[in-house]
């Protein structure tokens, strides 16, 4: 799932770790695992994926060995959290798809995913990395892409979205709004909403206006998944 492999602890392999995730846990072990997941979710959301397992152990108030017994490395922990992220986003896409108006359906999804990112610094990075995750997570990612493509397709058929807009544009747009949210969080936690509206109006110019009628197609082509991953990791 991730470009840089992490060293496993005391000989625990990634394969063993995946098997361990599916094995029933004792009550105390299950509580520790849930505590670690909740703490990791909070730390990653607030500080991004640079957080270490030592940081998570300290924040959770457990020994680092306890963390490594449940997760062989940070990649395994992030992968476990990915499942919940995709579950939430697929649920948001389903709610948006239930909106009968194609324009409002797309607006609801865009604002929803921007809000997810505003609350979670690690969201876009984790999603981009999902392509090399366990098959079950790839399935959920692909399901999300299909749902979002259908939402955009309805908007395209209704003529309410700029020509050329594609689901592949979302990671970079989400990163843009995320940058605003990160920079303004301490001063105005909702400032990102103002700029999210500008982005949404750029994608879907207000109907019945000269701007909407004359809106040109999107410039160029959306970046492919590999290029987005390189860009978000600041790699040339």
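-> sequence recovered:
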């Amino acid at each position: 799932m991730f470009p840089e492999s992490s060293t496993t602890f005391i000989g625990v392999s990634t394969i063993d770790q995946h098997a361990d995730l599916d094995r029933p846990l004792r009550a105390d072990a299950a509580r520790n695992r849930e505590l670690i997941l909740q703490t990791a979710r909070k730390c990653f959301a607030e500080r991004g994926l640079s957080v270490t397992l030592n940081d998570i152990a300290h924040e959770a108030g457990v020994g680092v060995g306890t963390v490594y017994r449940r997760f062989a490395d940070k990649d395994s922990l992030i992968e476990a959290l990915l499942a919940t992220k995709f579950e939430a986003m697929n649920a948001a896409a389903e709610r948006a798809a239930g909106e009968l108006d194609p324009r409002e359906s797309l607006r609801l999804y865009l604002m929803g995913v921007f809000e997810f990112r505003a609350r979670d610094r690690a969201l876009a990075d984790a999603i981009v990395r999902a392509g090399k995750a366990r098959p079950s997570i790839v399935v959920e990612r692909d399901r999300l892409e299909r749902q979002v493509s259908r939402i955009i397709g309805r908007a395209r058929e209704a003529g309410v979205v700029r020509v050329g807009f594609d689901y592949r544009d979302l990671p970079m747009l989400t990163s843009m709004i995320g940058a605003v949210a990160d920079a303004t969080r301490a001063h105005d936690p909702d400032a990102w909403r103002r700029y999210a509206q500008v982005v949404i109006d750029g994608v879907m110019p207000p109907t019945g206006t000269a701007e909407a009628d004359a809106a040109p197609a999107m410039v160029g082509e959306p970046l492919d998944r590999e290029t987005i991953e390189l860009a978000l990791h600041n790699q040339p």
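Confidence is low (pLDDT under 50) at residues 1-25.
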